[in-house]
Amino acid sequence: MDTVDLARLQFALTAGAHFLFVALTLGLATLVAVIQTRATLGRSTIHMRMTRFWGQLYIINYAMGIVTGLVMEFQLGLSWSGLTDFAGNAFGSALALETVVAFFVESTFLGLWIFGWERLNRWAHLSLIWIVTLTAYASAFWVMVSNGFLQNPVGYRSEGGVLHVVDFGAMVANPAGLVAFAHILSGALVAGGFVMAGVSAYHLRRRTTEQDFFRKSLRLGVGVSLPALVLTGTFGGIGFDTLQPGKAAAFTGDAGRMAQAQAEMTALHGPGDYLPSAGWVQGGGMTMLVVFGVLLLLAALNVLLMLFRPVVRGFRLWHWTMTASIPLPFVAMLGGWIFREMGRQPWAVYGLLTTADAMSPVTGGQMLFSLTAFVGVFAVLTVINYWLLARAARRGPDGVTLGGERRAETPERPDPALTF
């Protein structure tokens, strides 16, 4: 591999891993806010216990997402100084807003929510989790505005080889960012719903004494998953209208359209290879679509089966299937992310800056060392996150420390079927 390939591989692995943390954070935050709303309105003890249990899983994942996000920002400056020098004034404005939202507003209110149990009245405490959820949406929104600019640059002017924003409204309203934001947000709800349903099914399969607790959790996870999948598919279909010509041609394998896209880019930018790798684009896109189809089938079946109380309580094969399906939304998301980002190649800023020109002036040896270090850190963080989530999920509501003391318990035997 040359230096550019190493840098691209590093960014792909680290950004993909970070993306999975973000997706689960968005999904779980929404579900926790909904559960706490039900608990607050109805003064429901069981829903408040559910809030604490699922909230603890959310906090674990959120913490790891923040750490990986910091590493991602460090990597951007280390390996892609050409991109930040050329377009940092443009897409960097959206990233700056994301940083303010995520690290100042969201984290502050999340801290108040974590330590505000039994200290704030129930309405004030409920408002905190909704502020956290909405600021998480805002954080994701500004990231997608930034990414949308890289996919389809609008609202800028070029002066002295540097891009400057001249129409921030056009940048915010960029369809390449807005449609993707809606697509990702609904996909995050799918991930959160399948995790909630899968963990609940795990406990029901093991004949937990917390039957009512996990039946309610399972029904919420299943009930959210199907409409979220419909929304995900809808926005994904709309997103196909915003594809770059080369990406669309590579995905369909239409040789005529690929030749036309190449000819148009050559006329604009001179000789060069301006087509993305058809194998990566098709592989990522087909993975996303096939897994989406499987998820849609499972979600429809789950909704049907949950109408029958004996099935919810005792159908172990169904419970096992739901637990085993926890990774599927994340597989679909990674496939979609590969499809979106690989289809932009060879451009870092579509039509304006190539990926090779976006690189920092580093040697192959330096890039290999950086790749090894970053991937090692992310691998450790991913394993720790999985271990903490799985342990907290297996312990159930009696192992919760959020908002109160953990009660004594006999730990359940670990089950390899419980995966994230």
Low-confidence region ranges: 405-414
Q: Summarize the biggest pleated sheet.
A: 2 strands, antiparallel
Give, in spatial order, the strands making up the sheet with the most strands: 1-2
Helicity level, as a percent range? over 70%
- How many DSSP helices? 15
Mean pLDDT: 89
The proportion of strand residues reads under 5%
Pattern of helices and strands: HHHHEEHHHHHHHHHEEHH
Total tally of structural domains: 1
Radius of gyration, in Å, reads 23 Å
- Oligomer classification: single chain
| SSE class | mainly alpha
Overall morphology: globular
Tell me the distance between the termini. Answer: 32 Å
The total count of strands amounts to: 4
Care to describe what's here?
The protein is mainly α. It has one domain. Helix content is 77%, strand content 3%. It has 15 helices and 4 strands. A hairpin with a 2-residue loop joins strand 1 (156-159) and strand 2 (162-165). Helix 1 (3-42) packs antiparallel against helix 4. The radius of gyration is 23 Å and the shape is globular. It starts with a helix and ends in a 25-residue tail after the last helix. The model is unreliable at 405-414 (pLDDT under 50).
